[in-house]
Every structure is written in structure tokens, then in C-alpha cells.
């Protein structure tokens, strides 16, 4: 069963992690309904990406695990 949910991704050390994060998000692009990204204007190396996603929980957990496996990445997920 597909779930509509929200995932936030905090990216520390944006310059080092951003390409790997982008690769994972591109690979999972078919489950991403919407994406919003901002950087912290007070701290250039930090950013926040918010995703609206629809998929089964296994696929969502897999993407979150891949992202959290990267240095400087923190993921939060909330089911709507």
C-alpha cells in the first residue's frame, strides 16, 4: 500500500554531501511528488530539503537508510 508522507533531509557540509544526496534523490525520483530545498543563510554549509513522497514503506525506509548512510545527513520522516 502506498503512503503519502513527508521527509526532511538536513544536509551538513553541503559541498561534500550534495552530489551523493542528489544521486539518491534522482534514483528515487519516481516516488517524489514535490521537493523544496533551502540553505541556511546564516551558515553556508547547511541545507534543508523537504520532500513530499508517495510509496510503500519499504521503499521509503530504503531511501531514508541510503541517505542516512552518508556523512552529515539527518533524515526525519512523517506519515500524513
UniProtKB/TrEMBL annotation:
<dbReference type="InterPro" id="IPR027271">
    <property type="entry name" value="Acetolactate_synth/TF_NikR_C"/>
</dbReference>
<dbReference type="Pfam" id="PF21699">
    <property type="entry name" value="TM1266-like"/>
</dbReference>
<protein>
    <submittedName>
        <fullName>Metal-responsive CopG/Arc/MetJ family transcriptional regulator</fullName>
    </submittedName>
</protein>
<dbReference type="InterPro" id="IPR023860">
    <property type="entry name" value="FeFe-hyd_TM1266"/>
</dbReference>
<dbReference type="InterPro" id="IPR045865">
    <property type="entry name" value="ACT-like_dom_sf"/>
</dbReference>
